[in-house]
Amino acid sequence: MPLALEQLDLRGYDLIISSESGPPKVSLRPRRRFTFATCHTPMRYIWNMYHDYRNSAGRVARLMMPPLTHYLRCGT
User: What is the mean pLDDT of each run of 10 residues along the chain (76 residues)?
Assistant: First the structure.
């Protein structure tokens, strides 16, 4: 999801409003734009359910989960 959102071209907007529980979008704003972001609740499953998801994932997914989870947790 963060990689897909980074592809959005927001240069034509003066105000960006986001409302969600996923990774923060403040870093996606173009320069000289105002962003109003509300975060309802953090993505708890990234912390609470990590081991359940990892244990049930396939081999490739298990290898990719640590760096991707870190990316999502940090919101970078």
Answer: 72 76 56 66 79 92 91 70
The 3-class secondary structure across 13-75, one letter per residue, is CCEEEEEECCCCCHHHCCCCCEEEEEECCCCHHHHHCHHHHHHHCCHHHHHHHHHHHHHHHHC
Phi then psi dihedrals of residue 16, to 5 deg: -120, 125
C-alpha 49/C-alpha 19 separation (Å) is: 23
The confidence score (pLDDT) of residue 59 equals 94
Residue 24 C-alpha from the chain's centroid? 6
How far apart (Å, rounded) are the C-alpha atoms in residues 24 and 44?
14
Q: What is the pLDDT of residues 23-36, one digit of tens each?
A: 555 555 556 666 66
